[in-house]
Amino acid sequence: MPTILLLVALLTAVESVQGQDTPGVAASGPAATAVQPEVSAERAGPGADTEGPGSAPPEKTNERFFDLRHHERVTGEWRGVRPWLEEQGVEIALSLTAVYLHNARGGLETHHGHRITGSADLELTFNLEQLLGWSGAVVYLDAESTWGDDIGGDLVGNWFGVNGDAGGDEAILVRELWLEQTFWDGKARGRVGKIDLTVDFDTNAYANDETAQFLNPALINTGNLPVPDPGLGVQFVVQPVDWWYLGAGAGDAEADVRETGLRTALHGNDYFFFVLEQGFMPVFDAPWGKLPGGYRLGLWYDPQPKWKFVSDWGGQRRSFPYERDDLGFYVSVDQVLWREHATDDGDTQGLGVFCRYGHAAERVNEMEHFLSFGAQYEGLLPTRDEDVLGFGFAQGIVSDRLRWLERLDREYVYECYYNIKLLPAVNLTPDFQYIVNPGADDAGRDAFVAGLRVQISF
Protein backbone atom coordinates (compact mmCIF):
# COMPACT_ATOMS: atom_id res chain seq x y z
CA MET A 1 0.00 0.00 0.00
CA PRO A 2 2.65 2.60 -0.99
CA THR A 3 -0.06 5.11 -1.95
CA ILE A 4 -1.63 5.09 1.51
CA LEU A 5 1.76 5.37 3.25
CA LEU A 6 2.66 8.34 1.07
CA LEU A 7 -0.64 9.98 1.93
CA VAL A 8 -0.12 9.54 5.68
CA ALA A 9 3.38 11.03 5.42
CA LEU A 10 1.99 14.04 3.56
CA LEU A 11 -0.71 14.63 6.15
CA THR A 12 1.80 14.35 9.00
CA ALA A 13 4.02 16.95 7.35
CA VAL A 14 1.13 19.36 6.82
CA GLU A 15 0.04 18.93 10.46
CA SER A 16 3.52 19.70 11.82
CA VAL A 17 3.77 22.89 9.75
CA GLN A 18 0.32 24.31 10.40
CA GLY A 19 0.00 23.60 14.11
CA GLN A 20 -2.21 21.63 16.44
CA ASP A 21 -5.51 20.42 15.02
CA THR A 22 -8.69 21.68 16.71
CA PRO A 23 -12.13 20.10 16.48
CA GLY A 24 -14.30 21.42 13.70
CA VAL A 25 -16.58 20.44 10.85
CA ALA A 26 -15.80 20.73 7.19
CA ALA A 27 -18.13 21.63 5.15
CA SER A 28 -25.11 11.19 -6.64
CA GLY A 29 -25.83 9.13 -8.65
CA PRO A 30 -23.94 7.56 -11.62
CA ALA A 31 -22.86 9.57 -14.62
CA ALA A 32 -25.53 9.83 -17.33
CA THR A 33 -23.37 10.83 -20.29
CA ALA A 34 -21.25 8.64 -22.53
CA VAL A 35 -18.54 11.12 -23.45
CA GLN A 36 -17.09 13.32 -20.75
CA PRO A 37 -15.81 16.75 -21.84
CA GLU A 38 -12.60 16.48 -19.84
CA VAL A 39 -12.21 13.56 -17.46
CA SER A 40 -14.64 11.09 -15.93
CA ALA A 41 -16.73 12.16 -12.96
CA GLU A 42 -14.81 9.98 -10.50
CA ARG A 43 -11.52 11.48 -11.72
CA ALA A 44 -12.47 15.13 -11.26
CA GLY A 45 -12.19 16.90 -7.91
CA PRO A 46 -14.67 19.55 -6.81
CA GLY A 47 -14.58 22.73 -8.86
CA ALA A 48 -12.99 25.88 -7.52
CA ASP A 49 -12.64 29.49 -8.72
CA THR A 50 -9.18 29.84 -10.16
CA GLU A 51 -6.80 32.68 -9.62
CA GLY A 52 -4.02 31.24 -11.79
CA PRO A 53 -0.42 30.49 -10.92
CA GLY A 54 1.05 32.57 -8.19
CA SER A 55 -2.06 32.78 -5.99
CA ALA A 56 -1.60 33.01 -2.24
CA PRO A 57 -0.65 29.86 -0.30
CA PRO A 58 -3.43 28.06 1.59
CA GLU A 59 -4.69 29.67 4.78
CA LYS A 60 -4.71 27.74 8.02
CA THR A 61 -8.09 26.17 8.83
CA ASN A 62 -9.56 24.30 11.79
CA GLU A 63 -10.45 21.30 9.66
CA ARG A 64 -10.22 17.89 11.29
CA PHE A 65 -8.41 15.10 9.48
CA PHE A 66 -10.30 11.84 8.93
CA ASP A 67 -13.68 13.38 9.83
CA LEU A 68 -15.66 10.49 8.40
CA ARG A 69 -19.05 11.91 9.25
CA HIS A 70 -18.69 15.07 7.22
CA HIS A 71 -15.91 14.80 4.62
CA GLU A 72 -16.71 13.53 1.12
CA ARG A 73 -13.07 12.40 1.09
CA VAL A 74 -11.64 10.74 4.18
CA THR A 75 -8.62 13.01 4.36
CA GLY A 76 -10.66 16.17 3.82
CA GLU A 77 -9.11 19.24 2.23
CA TRP A 78 -5.64 18.78 3.77
CA ARG A 79 -5.91 22.00 5.78
CA GLY A 80 -6.60 23.99 2.61
CA VAL A 81 -3.79 22.40 0.56
CA ARG A 82 -6.07 20.41 -1.71
CA PRO A 83 -8.31 23.33 -2.89
CA TRP A 84 -5.20 25.51 -3.25
CA LEU A 85 -3.63 22.90 -5.53
CA GLU A 86 -6.83 22.76 -7.57
CA GLU A 87 -6.72 26.52 -7.98
CA GLN A 88 -3.21 26.12 -9.40
CA GLY A 89 -4.45 23.44 -11.82
CA VAL A 90 -3.51 20.20 -10.00
CA GLU A 91 -6.21 17.74 -8.90
CA ILE A 92 -5.40 14.67 -6.80
CA ALA A 93 -7.81 11.77 -6.32
CA LEU A 94 -7.05 8.77 -4.10
CA SER A 95 -9.39 5.81 -3.78
CA LEU A 96 -9.44 2.27 -2.43
CA THR A 97 -11.74 -0.56 -3.54
CA ALA A 98 -11.87 -3.92 -1.74
CA VAL A 99 -14.06 -6.83 -2.83
CA TYR A 100 -14.92 -10.07 -1.03
CA LEU A 101 -16.66 -12.74 -3.14
CA HIS A 102 -17.61 -16.31 -2.25
CA ASN A 103 -18.78 -19.06 -4.57
CA ALA A 104 -21.51 -20.39 -2.30
CA ARG A 105 -23.03 -22.96 -4.63
CA GLY A 106 -22.20 -24.82 -7.85
CA GLY A 107 -19.42 -23.91 -10.23
CA LEU A 108 -16.11 -25.73 -9.89
CA GLU A 109 -15.29 -25.33 -6.20
CA THR A 110 -17.17 -24.12 -3.12
CA HIS A 111 -14.76 -25.33 -0.44
CA HIS A 112 -12.48 -22.39 0.26
CA GLY A 113 -14.37 -20.77 -2.59
CA HIS A 114 -13.81 -17.21 -1.44
CA ARG A 115 -11.24 -14.52 -2.15
CA ILE A 116 -10.53 -10.90 -1.26
CA THR A 117 -9.29 -8.61 -4.01
CA GLY A 118 -8.70 -4.90 -4.19
CA SER A 119 -7.30 -1.90 -5.99
CA ALA A 120 -5.83 1.42 -4.91
CA ASP A 121 -5.83 4.28 -7.42
CA LEU A 122 -3.88 7.53 -7.54
CA GLU A 123 -5.23 9.92 -10.19
CA LEU A 124 -3.52 13.18 -11.08
CA THR A 125 -4.96 15.79 -13.42
CA PHE A 126 -2.84 18.73 -14.53
CA ASN A 127 -4.67 21.66 -16.13
CA LEU A 128 -1.95 23.11 -18.35
CA GLU A 129 -3.98 26.25 -19.00
CA GLN A 130 -3.76 27.17 -15.32
CA LEU A 131 -0.22 25.88 -14.87
CA LEU A 132 1.45 27.04 -18.09
CA GLY A 133 -1.08 29.13 -19.97
CA TRP A 134 -1.59 26.36 -22.57
CA SER A 135 -5.24 26.85 -23.45
CA GLY A 136 -7.45 23.74 -23.43
CA ALA A 137 -4.69 21.26 -22.54
CA VAL A 138 -4.86 18.62 -19.78
CA VAL A 139 -2.45 15.87 -18.71
CA TYR A 140 -3.91 12.91 -16.84
CA LEU A 141 -2.21 10.05 -14.94
CA ASP A 142 -3.86 6.99 -13.41
CA ALA A 143 -1.57 4.75 -11.34
CA GLU A 144 -3.09 1.63 -9.79
CA SER A 145 -2.01 -1.09 -7.38
CA THR A 146 -4.04 -4.33 -7.34
CA TRP A 147 -4.09 -7.58 -5.41
CA GLY A 148 -6.03 -10.85 -5.73
CA ASP A 149 -7.45 -12.77 -8.70
CA ASP A 150 -11.01 -13.16 -9.92
CA ILE A 151 -12.67 -16.34 -8.64
CA GLY A 152 -14.53 -16.69 -11.94
CA GLY A 153 -11.81 -18.74 -13.62
CA ASP A 154 -10.70 -21.33 -11.06
CA LEU A 155 -13.64 -21.48 -8.64
CA VAL A 156 -16.73 -20.71 -10.73
CA GLY A 157 -15.46 -21.69 -14.17
CA ASN A 158 -17.57 -19.19 -16.05
CA TRP A 159 -16.93 -17.34 -19.27
CA PHE A 160 -17.19 -13.71 -18.22
CA GLY A 161 -15.68 -13.88 -14.73
CA VAL A 162 -17.44 -12.39 -11.70
CA ASN A 163 -15.14 -9.57 -10.52
CA GLY A 164 -14.31 -6.76 -12.92
CA ASP A 165 -12.14 -5.01 -10.33
CA ALA A 166 -9.73 -7.94 -9.82
CA GLY A 167 -6.38 -7.34 -11.48
CA GLY A 168 -4.02 -9.89 -9.94
CA ASP A 169 -1.02 -9.00 -7.79
CA GLU A 170 0.56 -5.87 -9.25
CA ALA A 171 2.61 -3.50 -7.08
CA ILE A 172 1.86 -0.49 -9.28
CA LEU A 173 0.68 0.01 -12.85
CA VAL A 174 0.41 3.16 -14.91
CA ARG A 175 -2.96 2.42 -16.49
CA GLU A 176 -3.28 5.74 -18.28
CA LEU A 177 -1.00 8.66 -19.10
CA TRP A 178 -2.23 11.00 -21.78
CA LEU A 179 -2.40 14.55 -23.07
CA GLU A 180 -5.78 15.94 -24.08
CA GLN A 181 -6.39 19.08 -26.13
CA THR A 182 -9.79 20.70 -26.64
CA PHE A 183 -10.75 22.64 -29.77
CA TRP A 184 -13.56 24.80 -31.10
CA ASP A 185 -14.70 26.23 -27.77
CA GLY A 186 -14.75 22.78 -26.15
CA LYS A 187 -16.83 21.11 -28.86
CA ALA A 188 -14.00 18.77 -29.85
CA ARG A 189 -11.11 17.12 -28.06
CA GLY A 190 -8.19 14.91 -28.97
CA ARG A 191 -6.25 12.58 -26.72
CA VAL A 192 -2.88 10.88 -27.23
CA GLY A 193 -0.72 8.68 -24.99
CA LYS A 194 -1.41 5.53 -23.01
CA ILE A 195 -5.19 5.43 -23.10
CA ASP A 196 -8.06 3.17 -22.05
CA LEU A 197 -10.53 3.19 -24.95
CA THR A 198 -13.41 2.06 -22.72
CA VAL A 199 -13.35 5.41 -20.90
CA ASP A 200 -14.99 7.06 -23.93
CA PHE A 201 -16.29 4.16 -26.05
CA ASP A 202 -18.94 1.55 -25.21
CA THR A 203 -19.95 3.54 -22.15
CA ASN A 204 -23.25 3.40 -20.28
CA ALA A 205 -24.73 5.45 -17.46
CA TYR A 206 -25.86 2.43 -15.44
CA ALA A 207 -23.48 -0.40 -16.37
CA ASN A 208 -19.92 0.86 -16.70
CA ASP A 209 -18.20 1.15 -13.30
CA GLU A 210 -17.01 -1.88 -11.32
CA THR A 211 -16.24 0.31 -8.27
CA ALA A 212 -19.80 1.60 -7.88
CA GLN A 213 -22.18 -0.41 -10.09
CA PHE A 214 -22.12 -4.04 -11.30
CA LEU A 215 -19.12 -6.26 -10.57
CA ASN A 216 -19.56 -8.86 -13.30
CA PRO A 217 -17.55 -7.89 -16.43
CA ALA A 218 -20.56 -8.81 -18.59
CA LEU A 219 -22.39 -5.84 -17.04
CA ILE A 220 -19.49 -3.40 -17.36
CA ASN A 221 -18.81 -3.52 -21.11
CA THR A 222 -20.00 -5.40 -24.19
CA GLY A 223 -18.92 -9.01 -23.67
CA ASN A 224 -17.67 -9.75 -27.21
CA LEU A 225 -15.96 -6.41 -27.89
CA PRO A 226 -12.23 -7.30 -28.29
CA VAL A 227 -10.98 -3.98 -26.95
CA PRO A 228 -7.28 -4.22 -26.02
CA ASP A 229 -5.62 -3.42 -22.69
CA PRO A 230 -4.79 0.23 -22.04
CA GLY A 231 -1.88 1.05 -24.33
CA LEU A 232 -0.50 3.60 -26.74
CA GLY A 233 -3.24 5.16 -28.81
CA VAL A 234 -5.05 8.23 -30.01
CA GLN A 235 -8.68 9.29 -30.06
CA PHE A 236 -10.77 12.24 -31.20
CA VAL A 237 -14.31 13.18 -30.17
CA VAL A 238 -16.40 15.98 -31.65
CA GLN A 239 -19.71 17.11 -30.14
CA PRO A 240 -21.04 20.11 -32.13
CA VAL A 241 -24.42 20.01 -30.36
CA ASP A 242 -25.54 18.78 -26.93
CA TRP A 243 -27.52 15.87 -28.34
CA TRP A 244 -25.02 14.28 -30.76
CA TYR A 245 -21.35 13.32 -30.88
CA LEU A 246 -18.96 11.34 -33.07
CA GLY A 247 -15.82 9.68 -31.75
CA ALA A 248 -12.98 7.69 -33.28
CA GLY A 249 -10.13 5.90 -31.54
CA ALA A 250 -7.14 3.71 -32.32
CA GLY A 251 -5.17 1.66 -29.80
CA ASP A 252 -2.36 -0.88 -29.81
CA ALA A 253 -4.14 -4.20 -30.38
CA GLU A 254 -1.37 -6.15 -28.62
CA ALA A 255 -1.10 -3.82 -25.62
CA ASP A 256 -0.20 -5.16 -22.18
CA VAL A 257 -1.27 -2.82 -19.39
CA ARG A 258 1.84 -3.85 -17.40
CA GLU A 259 4.14 -2.30 -20.01
CA THR A 260 4.68 1.20 -21.34
CA GLY A 261 3.37 0.12 -24.73
CA LEU A 262 6.47 1.06 -26.71
CA ARG A 263 7.51 -2.54 -27.36
CA THR A 264 4.20 -3.77 -28.77
CA ALA A 265 3.23 -0.55 -30.57
CA LEU A 266 6.56 0.31 -32.22
CA HIS A 267 8.23 -3.08 -32.71
CA GLY A 268 7.14 -6.26 -34.42
CA ASN A 269 3.66 -6.35 -35.93
CA ASP A 270 1.97 -2.94 -35.96
CA TYR A 271 -1.58 -4.06 -35.21
CA PHE A 272 -3.94 -1.28 -34.14
CA PHE A 273 -7.53 -1.73 -32.98
CA PHE A 274 -9.93 0.88 -34.38
CA VAL A 275 -13.33 1.98 -33.10
CA LEU A 276 -15.85 4.48 -34.47
CA GLU A 277 -18.86 5.50 -32.39
CA GLN A 278 -21.70 7.96 -32.72
CA GLY A 279 -24.10 8.77 -29.94
CA PHE A 280 -27.42 10.54 -29.59
CA MET A 281 -28.03 12.14 -26.19
CA PRO A 282 -31.66 13.35 -26.20
CA VAL A 283 -33.49 14.85 -23.23
CA PHE A 284 -37.20 14.08 -23.27
CA ASP A 285 -39.72 16.30 -21.49
CA ALA A 286 -42.27 14.45 -19.37
CA PRO A 287 -44.73 15.47 -16.65
CA TRP A 288 -42.28 14.00 -14.10
CA GLY A 289 -39.31 16.00 -15.35
CA LYS A 290 -36.56 15.96 -17.97
CA LEU A 291 -35.45 12.46 -18.93
CA PRO A 292 -31.92 12.26 -20.41
CA GLY A 293 -30.82 9.25 -22.43
CA GLY A 294 -27.88 7.90 -24.37
CA TYR A 295 -28.12 5.91 -27.63
CA ARG A 296 -24.75 4.74 -29.01
CA LEU A 297 -23.73 2.72 -32.05
CA GLY A 298 -20.13 1.59 -32.46
CA LEU A 299 -18.15 -0.19 -35.18
CA TRP A 300 -14.82 -1.89 -34.49
CA TYR A 301 -11.97 -3.36 -36.52
CA ASP A 302 -9.29 -5.76 -35.27
CA PRO A 303 -6.48 -6.58 -37.76
CA GLN A 304 -4.82 -9.35 -35.74
CA PRO A 305 -4.71 -12.88 -37.19
CA LYS A 306 -7.17 -15.17 -35.41
CA TRP A 307 -7.73 -18.91 -35.59
CA LYS A 308 -10.70 -19.96 -37.65
CA PHE A 309 -12.95 -22.51 -35.99
CA VAL A 310 -12.59 -25.67 -38.07
CA SER A 311 -12.59 -29.38 -37.31
CA ASP A 312 -9.25 -30.95 -36.37
CA TRP A 313 -10.23 -34.16 -38.22
CA GLY A 314 -9.97 -36.26 -35.10
CA GLY A 315 -6.63 -34.77 -34.13
CA GLN A 316 -5.02 -35.30 -37.54
CA ARG A 317 -4.94 -31.65 -38.63
CA ARG A 318 -1.41 -30.24 -38.20
CA SER A 319 -2.19 -26.55 -38.63
CA PHE A 320 -5.20 -24.30 -38.49
CA PRO A 321 -6.09 -21.52 -40.92
CA TYR A 322 -5.96 -17.93 -39.72
CA GLU A 323 -8.12 -15.01 -40.68
CA ARG A 324 -7.32 -11.30 -40.33
CA ASP A 325 -9.35 -8.08 -40.41
CA ASP A 326 -12.10 -8.95 -37.95
CA LEU A 327 -15.14 -6.62 -37.89
CA GLY A 328 -18.05 -6.18 -35.50
CA PHE A 329 -20.46 -3.70 -33.97
CA TYR A 330 -22.14 -2.87 -30.66
CA VAL A 331 -25.08 -0.87 -29.34
CA SER A 332 -25.28 0.72 -25.88
CA VAL A 333 -28.43 2.43 -24.59
CA ASP A 334 -29.41 4.04 -21.30
CA GLN A 335 -32.52 6.06 -20.51
CA VAL A 336 -34.01 7.72 -17.44
CA LEU A 337 -37.68 6.69 -17.14
CA TRP A 338 -38.78 8.30 -13.88
CA ARG A 339 -37.58 11.13 -11.65
CA GLU A 340 -38.81 11.63 -8.13
CA HIS A 341 -38.36 15.41 -8.19
CA ALA A 342 -39.46 16.79 -11.54
CA THR A 343 -38.49 20.42 -10.91
CA ASP A 344 -35.00 19.81 -9.54
CA ASP A 345 -32.68 19.18 -12.50
CA GLY A 346 -29.78 18.45 -10.15
CA ASP A 347 -31.58 15.63 -8.33
CA THR A 348 -30.82 12.19 -9.80
CA GLN A 349 -33.26 10.08 -7.76
CA GLY A 350 -35.42 7.84 -9.90
CA LEU A 351 -35.48 4.91 -12.28
CA GLY A 352 -33.23 4.31 -15.28
CA VAL A 353 -32.81 1.37 -17.65
CA PHE A 354 -30.03 0.14 -19.94
CA CYS A 355 -29.29 -2.45 -22.61
CA ARG A 356 -26.35 -3.54 -24.77
CA TYR A 357 -25.93 -5.74 -27.82
CA GLY A 358 -22.74 -6.86 -29.55
CA HIS A 359 -22.09 -8.92 -32.67
CA ALA A 360 -18.81 -10.53 -33.75
CA ALA A 361 -17.97 -12.82 -36.68
CA GLU A 362 -18.67 -16.46 -35.88
CA ARG A 363 -15.65 -17.71 -37.84
CA VAL A 364 -13.01 -16.40 -35.42
CA ASN A 365 -14.84 -15.28 -32.24
CA GLU A 366 -16.02 -17.59 -29.49
CA MET A 367 -19.00 -15.36 -28.72
CA GLU A 368 -21.06 -14.36 -31.75
CA HIS A 369 -23.92 -12.60 -29.94
CA PHE A 370 -23.94 -10.73 -26.65
CA LEU A 371 -26.93 -9.16 -24.91
CA SER A 372 -27.38 -7.41 -21.58
CA PHE A 373 -30.07 -5.27 -19.99
CA GLY A 374 -31.17 -4.08 -16.58
CA ALA A 375 -32.33 -1.22 -14.40
CA GLN A 376 -31.17 1.06 -11.63
CA TYR A 377 -33.13 2.98 -9.00
CA GLU A 378 -31.47 5.71 -6.95
CA GLY A 379 -33.13 6.71 -3.68
CA LEU A 380 -35.66 3.87 -3.57
CA LEU A 381 -35.92 3.75 0.23
CA PRO A 382 -37.16 6.75 2.26
CA THR A 383 -34.32 8.80 3.82
CA ARG A 384 -31.76 6.85 1.71
CA ASP A 385 -31.62 9.29 -1.21
CA GLU A 386 -28.08 8.38 -2.34
CA ASP A 387 -28.37 4.59 -2.13
CA VAL A 388 -28.57 2.78 -5.47
CA LEU A 389 -30.28 -0.52 -6.30
CA GLY A 390 -29.31 -2.24 -9.54
CA PHE A 391 -30.35 -5.42 -11.34
CA GLY A 392 -28.86 -6.74 -14.57
CA PHE A 393 -28.97 -9.71 -16.92
CA ALA A 394 -26.41 -10.71 -19.54
CA GLN A 395 -25.92 -13.63 -21.89
CA GLY A 396 -23.19 -14.69 -24.27
CA ILE A 397 -24.10 -16.99 -27.16
CA VAL A 398 -21.40 -19.24 -28.57
CA SER A 399 -20.73 -18.89 -32.29
CA ASP A 400 -22.36 -21.56 -34.44
CA ARG A 401 -19.04 -23.03 -35.57
CA LEU A 402 -17.64 -23.36 -32.05
CA ARG A 403 -20.94 -24.74 -30.81
CA TRP A 404 -20.67 -27.54 -33.33
CA LEU A 405 -17.01 -28.25 -32.52
CA GLU A 406 -17.06 -27.97 -28.71
CA ARG A 407 -20.72 -28.76 -27.92
CA LEU A 408 -21.10 -25.47 -26.08
CA ASP A 409 -24.18 -23.24 -26.02
CA ARG A 410 -24.52 -20.05 -23.96
CA GLU A 411 -23.91 -18.55 -20.52
CA TYR A 412 -26.35 -16.43 -18.52
CA VAL A 413 -25.54 -13.94 -15.76
CA TYR A 414 -27.95 -12.41 -13.25
CA GLU A 415 -26.64 -9.78 -10.83
CA CYS A 416 -28.20 -7.60 -8.14
CA TYR A 417 -26.43 -5.03 -5.97
CA TYR A 418 -27.37 -2.38 -3.42
CA ASN A 419 -24.84 0.45 -3.10
CA ILE A 420 -25.16 1.98 0.38
CA LYS A 421 -23.84 5.48 1.04
CA LEU A 422 -22.54 4.50 4.45
CA LEU A 423 -20.58 7.71 5.01
CA PRO A 424 -19.87 10.67 2.72
CA ALA A 425 -16.57 9.05 1.68
CA VAL A 426 -17.46 5.37 2.13
CA ASN A 427 -19.77 3.15 0.08
CA LEU A 428 -20.70 -0.42 1.05
CA THR A 429 -22.25 -2.68 -1.61
CA PRO A 430 -23.69 -6.18 -1.06
CA ASP A 431 -23.59 -8.03 -4.39
CA PHE A 432 -25.27 -11.25 -5.56
CA GLN A 433 -24.71 -13.13 -8.83
CA TYR A 434 -26.27 -16.23 -10.34
CA ILE A 435 -24.49 -17.83 -13.30
CA VAL A 436 -26.34 -20.34 -15.48
CA ASN A 437 -24.29 -22.75 -17.62
CA PRO A 438 -20.83 -21.59 -16.44
CA GLY A 439 -18.41 -21.75 -19.34
CA ALA A 440 -21.41 -22.04 -21.74
CA ASP A 441 -21.48 -25.73 -20.86
CA ASP A 442 -24.95 -27.22 -20.32
CA ALA A 443 -23.35 -29.90 -18.13
CA GLY A 444 -21.83 -27.30 -15.78
CA ARG A 445 -23.26 -26.62 -12.34
CA ASP A 446 -25.09 -23.30 -12.04
CA ALA A 447 -23.25 -21.08 -9.54
CA PHE A 448 -24.38 -18.62 -6.88
CA VAL A 449 -21.82 -15.98 -5.88
CA ALA A 450 -22.30 -13.53 -3.01
CA GLY A 451 -20.03 -10.82 -1.74
CA LEU A 452 -19.37 -7.35 -0.47
CA ARG A 453 -17.57 -4.34 -1.95
CA VAL A 454 -16.14 -1.40 -0.01
CA GLN A 455 -15.18 1.80 -1.82
CA ILE A 456 -13.38 4.62 -0.02
CA SER A 457 -12.43 8.01 -1.38
CA PHE A 458 -9.39 9.63 0.21
Structure write-up:
Helix content is 10%, strand content 43%. It has a 16-stranded antiparallel β-barrel with strand order 1-2-3-4-5-6-7-8-10-13-14-15-16-17-18-19. Strands 11-12 form a two-stranded antiparallel sheet. It has helices at residues 2-18, 81-88, 128-132, 151-156, 262-266, 400-406; strands at residues 90-105, 114-127, 137-147, 170-183, 188-195, 231-241, 244-252, 272-280, 283-286, 289-302, 306-307, 322-323, 326-339, 350-360, 367-378, 388-398, 410-423, 426-436, 447-457. The protein has a domain at 149-165 and 201-457: Porin (Beta Barrel). It has 458 residues and is mainly β.
Mean pLDDT: 86
Strand arrangement across the biggest beta sheet: 1-2-3-4-5-6-7-8-10-13-14-15-16-17-18-19
Query: Count of helices?
Result: 6
Helix content: 10-25%
Q: What is the CATH architecture annotation of the domain at 149-165 and 201-457?
A: Beta Barrel
Report the sheet-strand fraction: 35-45%
The profile of the biggest β sheet is: 16 strands, antiparallel, barrel
Radius of gyration: 23 Å
